[in-house]
C-alpha cells in the first residue's frame, strides 16, 4: 500500500493506492472467428444480455482468449443456460482447458461469439446440433492445433477421457448412493 500525502492550502489530502496482484489483462489481440459471427459479446460487460438474447435458442458459439488467441467451439441446446454456466463457480472448477483459461485470464480477456442460431430450443434435433458443431471443429482441428481449447475432435463426446482409478472404487458397494 502506498500513501500519497498532498498539502494544498494548509489542508492535507491523503490518497491511498492499493497494489493488488492482478490477473493478466492485455494486450488484447484481434479475435479470429471461424466465420463472420452473428453476434459478438464482451462477457465481462454483457453477461445479462447474453442470458436474455440466447434464452431458449439452440446455438453454436465460440470463445476467444484475447491474450493467447486460443479458441473454443461449443454448442448449446438452450443457449442462455449453457453460456451462463461459464460464470458458475462449480462449473469453473472442472479441470478442462476452457474453464482453466477463464479462471486464469478472467472473462475480461475473452470474446464470445455466436456463430449460428439454429432455432428455438426443441426445433432441431440433437444430431443436427452436433453436426453443425462438428463442422466448426473440423475446421479448427485441421488448422493450428496449439490454438484450440477443445479437448476432443468429435462433437458431443469425451473420447479418450479416462477417470482416475479411484473413481470406480468410489462408485461401488456402500459408497454408491443408488
TrEMBL record:
Keywords: Endonuclease, Hydrolase, Mitochondrion, Nuclease. SMART domains: GIYc. GO terms for molecular function: endonuclease activity. Residues 57-151 form the GIY-YIG domain. Gene3D superfamilies: GIY-YIG endonuclease (3.40.1440.10). It comes from the Eukaryota. This is GIY-YIG homing endonuclease. It comes from Amanita bisporigera (Destroying angel). The gene is orf178.
Amino acid at each position: 500500500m502506498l500513501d500519497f500525502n498532498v498539502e494544498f492550502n494548509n489542508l492535507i489530502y491523503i490518497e491511498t493506492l492499493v497494489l493488488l496482484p492482478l490477473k493478466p489483462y492485455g494486450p488484447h489481440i484481434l479475435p479470429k472467428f471461424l466465420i463472420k459471427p452473428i453476434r459478438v459479446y464482451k462477457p465481462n460487460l454483457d453477461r445479462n444480455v447474453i442470458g436474455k438474447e440466447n434464452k431458449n435458442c439452440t446455438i453454436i458459439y465460440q470463445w476467444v482468449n484475447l491474450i493467447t488467441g486460443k479458441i473454443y467451439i461449443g454448442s448449446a441446446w438452450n443457449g442462455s443456460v449453457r453460456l451462463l454456466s461459464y460464470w458458475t463457480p462449480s462449473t469453473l472448477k472442472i479441470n478442462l482447458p476452457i474453464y482453466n483459461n477463464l479462471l486464469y485470464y478472467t472473462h475480461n480477456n475473452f470474446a464470445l461469439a455466436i456463430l449460428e442460431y439454429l432455432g428455438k430450443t426443441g426445433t432441431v434435433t440433437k444430431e443436427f446440433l452436433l453436426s453443425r458443431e462438428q463442422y466448426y471443429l473440423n475446421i479448427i482441428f485441421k488448422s493450428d492445433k496449439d490454438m484450440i481449447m477443445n479437448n476432443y475432435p468429435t462433437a458431443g463426446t469425451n473420447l479418450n477421457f479416462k477417470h482416475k482409478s479411484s473413481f470406480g472404487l468410489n462408485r461401488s458397494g456402500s459408497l454408491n448412493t443408488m
